[in-house]
Amino acid sequence: xxxxxxxxxxxxxxxxxxxxxxxxxxxxxxxxxxxxxxxxxxxxxxxxxxxxxxxxxxxxxxxxxxxxxxxxxxxxxxxxxxxxxxxxxxxxxxxxxxxxxxxxxxxxxxxxxxxxxxxxxxxxxxxxxxxxxxxxxxxxxxxxxxxxxxxxxxxxxxxxxxxxxxxxxxxxxxxxxxxxxxxxxxxxxxxxxxxxxxxxxxxxxxxxxxxxxxxxxxxxxxxxxxxxxxxxxxxxxxxxxxxxxxxxxxxxxxxxxxxxxxxxxxxxxxxxxxxxxxxxxxxxxxxxxxxxxxxxxxxxxxxxxxxxxxxxxxxxxxxxxxxxxxxxxxxxxxxxxxxxxxxxx
Length: 345
What we know:
By secondary structure, the chain is α/β, with parallel strands linked by helices. It has two domains: 3-60, Orthogonal Bundle (DNA polymerase, domain 1), CATH 1.10.150.530; 64-343, TIM Barrel (Alpha-Beta Barrel). The chain has helices at 10-19, 25-33, 49-58, 131-145, 164-174, 195-203, 219-225, 234-248, 266-276, 301-313, 334-343, and strands at 3-4, 59-60, 64-71, 78-84, 89-97, 100-105, 108-109, 127-128, 149-154, 187-191, 209-213, 252-258, 281-287, 318-320. α9 packs parallel to α10. It is elongated, with a radius of gyration of 21 Å. The relative contact order is 0.12.
């Protein structure tokens, strides 16, 4: 059975060329191609034809195929819909900030977490992505725009810590000096709050930013929004966050989507501030994304500003996320959900 070219890292290629009786330097050549967004074997121009033939016998390069690219007319945001080798669909989003280009990638085809506000929930779960399928998202987008990607967020479709082994492997690969060479300090890994996974991830000692989807000031509201909260309560979650800060010295980011009438009142801000007091953290307030079939509505801009000001006055570091790509359904899962609905009317 053929393997996906992007799934092999330098160590894998070193073993492979040795097994083929080839010189060691060929491994470095092969590994380097993964950072160039290659999909056509004819591009392996620094390899002799005999070696290209050997590669094609054992590997395929079309494990991630661009189906559609949507460019926002409002900003430089672009959304990519990719098809995997087995037909599963995933999404990635390209964003431009003052510090450079950033991509938000998927870690699974679908999601098992069932958050009631997420567009990914209604499209079902396909499977975990491999490290190579995550790496290919970054590489293909970098090639498409002809620019270096300097920041990565694993916050697209899927729960990264539900696929932790492949995510950690991806993090080590994307950081390779001879590859994409993206600093781990410029990478964020999101989680809905899988506490055992958080503890294990902390122990990996990777200096990435851990981003926790909080979205509520207490267990009652959080359980309404996120089924995972019924398994791991607020106190357990914050204990894992404090452990992460103590072990790594890295600030936690809390994602807090504001839903009208649900979690956006001043009493919610006060309760949240009291919960987070003394914890090295940053709260990223998100005007919630609305989508067809969704049951929640975005908070009014006035309520968002009031909530933000209340947190800041209470001593909590907080900002309001700038909305990007709203005209191309840039929020996670919306495009895949629409495509699945078209395929299964």
